[in-house]
Specification:
The structure is a single chain. This protein folds into 2 domains: 319 residues, no CATH class; 206 residues, Methane Monooxygenase Hydroxylase, Chain G, domain 1. Helix 2 crosses helix 3, helix 3 packs parallel to helix 17 and helix 9 packs across helix 11. It is 80% helix and 0% strand. The radius of gyration is 30 Å and the shape is elongated. It is mainly alpha-helical.
Length: 554
């Protein structure tokens, strides 16, 4: 008995490891496309359903897609209402795993195919082309997944040889709604323990195919698995902001509401699955397909029933989870935790969003400088403190986003994503320097007011014009960051802006030096003015560096 238990655990371990390797390989093969898909195809709830379905089918993990969804909501790339649509699609996408396991794992014998698949994949792992290497990892994960399934089928004893186990299980069946609730709770606990609805589903399918449980019992367990899988998104949202917590809670409510009506209509639902699928559900060999049909039908019906109530569901979670006073930095999804799937490949979007925020901080600091410089007679203390806080935010953001990128790179990511991570870390360093220069401008404006450094009236207009050019460059950089890439024409425009800024700074500096030579007065004021010009020109240089880094990555 102990030996059989360890065989089952080992088989499940191989299945889960195969699923992990396959999912990570699929993420590496299609990570950029998945992130673009998530950004562009969530404009309404129906598009969100399609997005969630496609992403989950591509990575074969609803946990990975829901964790990515929480990450996007945390980064502000998705609203809670948009995320609910993605959740519905992810629930539909995870039903494909049931069909794959039922079709390939129980209809055909994979014992003679799994090892050759791994053998074909091995040479690909040593390829210099990252796409071939990722394809090799996918094939190995695919082979290990079904090899684990083969071992699981062989390690679970046949019910004919263990009639006492059947008698034990039957003592909990045939009790109407109480039996349904009992096995519903069992399915929920099973999924929470293994942290994978795919693994829980494989266990349930194997038990049914071996004759341990009948179809209604398996259907009740499937309903429990639908609730248990929501724990992944909620764990991912524990350290996230209020909107991410709302999205995760909406995931739970959506599944729980569906399970509630499914339990009430349990008998008609199971009968409908029997009617749709050919074959007698009383025969263990047919149960896997009936289970897949029940799982798919339940999720389709639940989505159809609730998709019209997405705004109401959004308002419900908004009432339950209140807004935090202020979004704290560092509220990234802790995808690297042992209880969560590795989704570093997909979570880069949050770091990219933080990079855009750092660029915005530079703009805020330069705009704040212009405000202080052109209104020297007003009280500056409070405004200077506000701008000082922005500079502190940029420093903290640089450290935390860099750390987050390092955590992403520690996971399984593609070569192109690794290059993207490297370029983003270099961009962060440039943006931090831009913010530092913006804050120096603020301090120079404050010093001019405090030390009463008087400059000729024409310099006020010159500073305003110069700041407008610099801000135009900062805005142009923001547009490129939002697009995620730099075209050759963008780099030409950037060089023109940077050259214009350099020339503008040189001309104004010459005028300042000439004034000092002719009058010999206000030397300190003129030196402060030159310092302002140098820092604004430095912001232009850093903006060009950012675009060159992005262009080099492309």
């Amino acid at each position: 008995m102990i030996g059989t238990l360890f065989e089952i655990l080992g088989s499940l371990g191989m299945f889960l490891f195969g699923m992990k390797v396959m999912s990570e390989a699929l993420q590496k093969l299609s990570g950029d496309r998945l992130r673009a898909l998530m950004r562009t195809m969530t404009r309404n709830r129906f598009a969100g359903v399609g997005t969630g379905f496609l992403v989950t089918c591509m990575v074969q993990s609803s946990s990975a897609s829901t964790v990515m969804m929480v990450s996007f909501v945390n980064a502000g790339l998705l609203t809670v209402v948009e995320a609910i649509g993605v959740i519905m699609g992810a629930n539909l996408g995870t039903t494909t795993t049931f069909w794959i396991v039922s079709l390939l794992g129980f209809k055909f014998s994979l014992s003679a195919v799994a090892l050759p698949i791994i053998g074909v994949a091995m040479p690909l792992l040593f390829s210099r082309r990252s796409s071939l290497k990722d394809a090799g990892e996918f094939l190995i994960g695919f082979g290990l997944l079904f090899l684990g399934l083969v071992f699981l089928k062989d390690s679970v004893p046949d019910i004919q040889n263990n009639p006492e186990a059947l008698a034990f299980i039957q003592s909990y069946t045939d009790r109407g709604i109480f039996s349904v609730l009992f096995f519903f709770v069992f399915g929920t606990i099973l999924t929470v323990v293994v942290q994978s609805s795919s693994v829980a589903g494989a266990i349930t399918i194997t038990m049914a195919a071996k004759g341990w449980i009948d179809f209604p019992t398996a259907a009740a367990i499937i309903l429990g698995e639908n609730v248990g899988t929501t724990i992944t998104a909620n764990l991912a949202a524990l350290s996230a902001n209020a909107n991410a917590k709302r999205a995760a809670l909406a995931h739970f409510f959506f599944n729980f509401i569906g399970v509630t009506w499914a339990i009430v209509l349990f008998v008609p639902l199971t009968q409908a699955a029997d009617w749709i699928m050919p074959g007698d559900a009383l025969k263990p060999g047919n149960i896997p397909f009936h289970m897949a049909a029940f799982h798919t039908g339940f999720n389709l019906l639940n989505t159809a029933l609730l998709i019209g109530f997405v705004p109401q569901l959004g308002r419900l979670v908004n009432r339950i989870i209140k807004d935090t006073p202020k979004r704290k930095r560092g509220e990234h999804v802790k995808y690297e935790g042992t209880l969560l799937p590795q989704t570093g490949e997909l979570n880069l979007a949050e770091a990219e969003e933080d990079v855009q925020r750092m660029n915005q901080l530079t703009r805020d600091l330069v705009s704040g400088f212009v405000e202080l410089y052109t209104n020297p007679t007003e009280k500056l203390g409070d405004r200077v403190e506000e701008l000082k806080q922005l500079e502190k935010d940029s420093d903290r953001m640089a450290v935390e986003t860099t750390d987050y990128l390092l955590r992403c790179s520690a996971g399984s990511v593609s070569d192109s994503s690794m290059a993207r991570i490297s370029s983003l870390m270099r961009v962060i360093a440039e943006l931090e320097d831009m913010c530092d220069r913006g804050y120096r401008l603020v301090l120079l404006a404050e010093r001019r007011y405090r030390k009463k450094r008087e400059l000729p009236p024409e310099t006020h207009e010159q500073v305003r014009q110069f700041s407008e050019i610099v801000l135009r460059f900062v805005d142009f950089t923001a547009d490129c960051l939002r697009r995620g890439g730099v075209r050759p024409t963008d780099l030409e425009t950037a060089h023109q802006l940077e050259n214009f800024i350099d020339k503008f700074r040189k001309d104004l500096r010459k005028e300042s030096i000439q004034r000092m030579r002719t009058s010999g007065e206000q030397v300190k004021a003129e030196m402060l003015y030159i310092d302002i010009l140098n820092n604004m020109e430095g912001i232009g240089n850093h903006s060009l560096n950012v675009l060159q880094i992005l262009r080099h990555h492309d």
